[in-house]
UniProtKB/TrEMBL annotation, chain C:
Gene3D superfamilies tied to this protein: MetI-like (1.10.3720.10)
Organism: Dactylosporangium darangshiense
Subcellular location: Cell membrane
PANTHER family, sorted: AMINO-ACID ABC TRANSPORTER PERMEASE PROTEIN YHDX-RELATED, MEMBRANE COMPONENT OF AMINO ACID ABC TRANSPORTER
Membrane topology per record: Multi-pass membrane protein
Principal place of residence: membrane
Residues spanning the signal sequence: none
PROSITE patterns found in the cross-reference section: ABC_TM1
TM stretches of this protein: 25-46, 58-78, 186-206
A Pfam family that the UniProt record links to this protein: BPD_transp_1
Protein's UniProt name: Amino acid ABC transporter permease
Length: 291, 321, 218
């Protein structure tokens, strides 16, 4: 089991690794015990701090917040994917009239923080006299920012598709648009799927910024629950619960991406090195194949 | 492998459903901590109103008010409020709203002919108040909204319906902070960018590195209790509400910040934020406030909400324009 | 136009000092997360199962947790442990903890692209750990690592705005301050956007420069 950094362990290294393993486990156990003890001392496990969670009203508020988060993330994800694809194709266009604005958009929206984009989407329409709630500014901000990032991911994917594919397509007489949308983009998406889904996970986490414009999403509800002085200002229990929900959801998304990639692409990409030839007599039998 | 994964999913789903079914009905009511001898009992979380009834007026018509026309066609009114200021604008754990500002808002709504049950409340943070009123996101705003000349460029005000002063909230056992002059070397907390903290900064009442800012006052109070800051500063009406919820841990210093030029406390005049150009509505609301102040409604609302924080209050004179 | 410029000049005390804090936060967090990220990568590929488990769970937890929550837990949970951290160091720690998870992933993917045979050949030639790393593995890994690493730091520069919600007077807090001073919101936001555009330019230039130097013909 060699890898790039570490060689196969010899006897001295094995002993060292074992000691290191024991020390690490002891260290982690000590840290977790310390945290639990100290939380206990400062009363984080007092029942009053967790009391709010037993009630349906609070549970419903959390659920509503969670659904708002999912709705915002879903809307923004779909829009960002479309926006990103359009921008990527625009950046690779042969006509400067499309290429220049597309490049400008991508660089601009990648540079401006998401928080500021959300503020623009919130205060801008109001300055012009239109009424907007907090939901669409969050979605628009997320779309612009993640669309720009996804555009770069799509572009990298399109450029990574084997040149032969596009050459064959052109040889068959397909036009640029057909080549892009029928041949290149589907393969690019398949190759970049992990990066795309990890960006969607980032998008889901960034919905937490909605609390700044008072969108009642999950973190905002968590803050409200934590801010009740009569219950002992249970910020820590509230944040722990909210963190658990986020980590589970994002974890499930990432796992789904991993599963999707395995089904579509079939595991790791083809290795560029030759597989080692087995030293036994039966080469070519059920086992090693010569690549 | 697939079977175990499906089984895991099913287990998680049923577990979460089971937990959801375990929810108790009704309002969580915290056990009030045993009061120390002599200290007032802590006020709980559950919302109680002042008992004033708000019957919607009939046949209301305000000529020349676009906001009123909008309210009438919609059949409901959207009011901007705060949610984390006990006895002023508070939302308890079951979602009920109560407090002085909330009831003033309900009073105005009933005078406009809207049933208080038909009010749609929107929680708007301090920094976004002008934007919400200008953009029409709320019809009017009642939430410790101080009247200032600069703000009058964007919105208009009816009132004031209460005058507060800037004060300090400290830990009960802290005797070193007695007023705005004893803040040197102490950490002071307030809402990000708010007027009280800008005043502290401009007058150099404490070192720049000791100024702490959070988005909400509850976070400041949490840091105060954890001994990470030494004082929370904002309007005394807000601070008294927090002290009333936990009198064994918190107290208000009781010495308002005074303007060195006049010797009087800086007045924080709470007004009802209205759209800038709607003079008809402004006059109507001012008339409604005047009536409430003269016929005892104002006092009844005050005694049943802010008065519970432990200080008497009198209705201020309105500033009409 | 005049009013637009006045927003900057009248409020330069706030805008300038806050952006300076952003730059400080970014530089400290960049160095810290590089160090911690490298450490995490070493743990994740190490032959010790306990270290591998710790590294993997750390990255799993922090990659799936919103940065706002990491900040909130640091500012509100850590005092409950009777450990006292000031707000600016706390913000640095939160940023470092969060970004190092992403740095670790970028480094790991870079190291995975180096064929194992390279390292084995180097070891067969008698090079020790440091020599293998500096002469053979890292130069090859860098080429793949640079683009994702720059984008991680790009994202971190923008994530510093979250510190504004936790009592760090940096660029994200400018909007709240200037709204209290009743300045035109759109102008304020435009100046903040321009500020960040200026800050991002060095990063993007660095990325272009490194990509051009280490471009691999395929």
């Amino acid at each position: 089991m060699t890898n790039v950094l570490y060689d196969l362990p010899g006897p001295k290294a094995r002993l060292r690794n074992r000691i290191l393993g024991v020390v690490t486990v002891l260290g982690i156990v000590a840290l977790v015990a310390f945290i639990i003890m100290r939380f206990n001392e400062t009363g984080q496990f007092d029942s009053i701090k967790w009391q709010q969670f037993e009630y349906q009203a609070i549970q419903n508020q959390l659920l509503d917040g969670y659904l708002t988060t999912l709705r915002a993330a879903g809307a923004a994800a779909v829009l960002a994917l479309v926006f990103g694809a359009v921008l990527a194709v625009g950046r690779l266009s042969d006509h400067a009239a499309f290429r220049a604005p597309a490049t400008l958009f991508v660089e601009l929206f990648r540079a401006i923080p998401l928080l500021i984009l959300i503020f623009f989407a919130y205060y801008g329409p109001i300055q012009l006299g239109y009424q907007v709630g907090p939901f669409w500014p969050l979605v628009i901000g997320l779309t612009l920012y993640n669309g720009a990032v996804l555009a770069e991911i799509f572009r990298a994917g399109i450029l990574a598709v084997a040149k032969g594919q596009s050459e064959a397509a052109y040889a068959l007489g397909m036009r640029k648009t057909q080549v892009m949308w029928s041949i290149l983009l589907p393969q690019a998406v398949r190759a970049m799927l992990p990066a795309i889904v990890s960006q969607v996970v980032v998008l889901l986490k960034d919905t937490a910024l909605g609390f700044i414009i008072q969108l009642p999403e999950l973190l905002y509800v968590g803050k409200q629950i934590g801010g009740r002085l009569p219950f002992g200002l249970p910020y820590v229990p509230s944040y722990l619960v909210v963190a658990a929900i986020y980590i589970t959801t994002c974890g499930l998304l990432s796992w789904f991406a991993f599963w999707l990639q395995k089904r579509l692409v079939g595991g790791k990409r083809q290795k560029t090195t030759a597989k080692p030839v087995p030293l036994t007599a039966d080469t070519g039998a059920a086992g090693g194949t010569l690549v | 492998m697939r079977i175990t994964r499906i089984a895991a999913f099913a287990a998680v789903a049923t577990l979460s459903l089971g937990l959801a079914a375990c929810g108790k009905e009704g309002t969580p009511t915290p056990e009030t901590p045993a009061g120390q001898s002599g200290a007032p009992a802590a006020q709980g979380d559950a919302c109680t109103s002042s008992g004033t009834s708000f019957t919607p007026a009939t046949g209301v018509d305000i000529a020349g008010s676009p906001t009123f026309a909008k309210i009438k066609t919609a059949g409901k009114v959207v009011i901007g409020v705060k949610f984390d200021q006990p006895n002023l604008g508070y939302k308890d754990a079951s979602g009920k709203r109560c407090g002085f500002d909330i009831e003033i808002a309900q009073l105005i709504a009933s005078k406009l002919g809207i049933d208080p049950a038909k009010i749609e409340y929107k929680e708007v943070a301090s920094a976004n108040r002008e934007t919400a009123i200008k953009g029409g996101e709320v019809d009017y705003y009642v939430g410790t909204y101080s009247i200032t000349d600069k703000r009058k460029a964007d919105v208009s005000f009816a009132g004031p319906y209460f005058i507060a002063a800037q004060d300090l909230l400290v830990r009960k056992d802290d005797t070193s902070i007695t007023g705005s002059d004893s803040l040197k070397g102490k950490k002071v907390c307030s809402a990000t960018g708010s007027t009280p903290i800008q005043r502290v900064r401009d007058q150099k009442l404490t070192e720049d590195s000791n100024i702490v800012e959070f988005k909400t006052y509850s976070e400041c109070v949490s840091q105060l209790i954890d001994k990470k800051v030494d004082a929370v500063t904002t309007d005394d009406a807000i601070l008294k509400g927090y002290a009333a919820q936990n009198p064994s841990l918190l107290k208000v210093v009781g010495k308002p910040f005074t303007d060195p030029t006049t010797g009087k406390p800086y007045p924080e005049k709470y007004g009802i934020g209205l759209p800038h150009d709607d003079k008809a509505l402004r006059d109507f609301v001012n008339a409604a406030l005047e009536k409430a102040e003269s016929d005892g409604t104002w006092q009844k609302i005050y005694d049943g909400t802010l008065g519970k924080s432990g200080s008497a209050g009198t209705a201020p004179a309105l500033e009409k324009y | 136009m005049n009013e637009f410029l006045h927003v900057l000049t009248d409020n330069w005390d706030i805008i300038g000092s806050h952006f300076l804090t952003t730059i400080e936060l970014f530089l400290i967090a960049a160095v810290g997360s590089l160090v911690l990220g490298t450490l995490l990568t070493a743990m994740r590929v190490s032959p010790v199962p306990a270290l591998r488990g710790f590294g993997t769970s750390y990255v799993l937890l922090l990659r799936n947790c919103p940065l706002t929550l990491v900040f909130a837990l640091l500012v509100f949970a850590v005092p409950k442990l009777d450990v006292s951290i000031d707000y600016f160091p706390g913000a640095c720690i939160a940023l470092i903890a969060y970004t190092s998870a992403f740095v670790c992933e970028a480094l790991r993917s870079g190291i995975n692209t180096v064929p194992v045979g390279q390292a084995e050949a180097a070891r067969a030639l008698g090079m020790n750990f440091t020599q293998v790393l500096s002469n053979v593995v890292l130069p090859q890994a860098f080429r793949t690592v640079v683009p994702p690493m720059i984008s991680v730091f790009n994202a971190m520069l923008k994530n510093t705005t979250i510190a504004a919600g936790f009592s760090v007077a940096e660029a994200g807090a400018i909007q709240a301050y200037l709204s209290e001073r009743s300045e035109n919101q759109i102008y304020v936001l435009l100046w903040i956007a321009i500020g960040f555009l200026i800050l991002v330019v060095p990063l993007v230039t660095l990325q272009r420069m490194l990509e051009r130097r280490w471009r691999v013909a395929r």
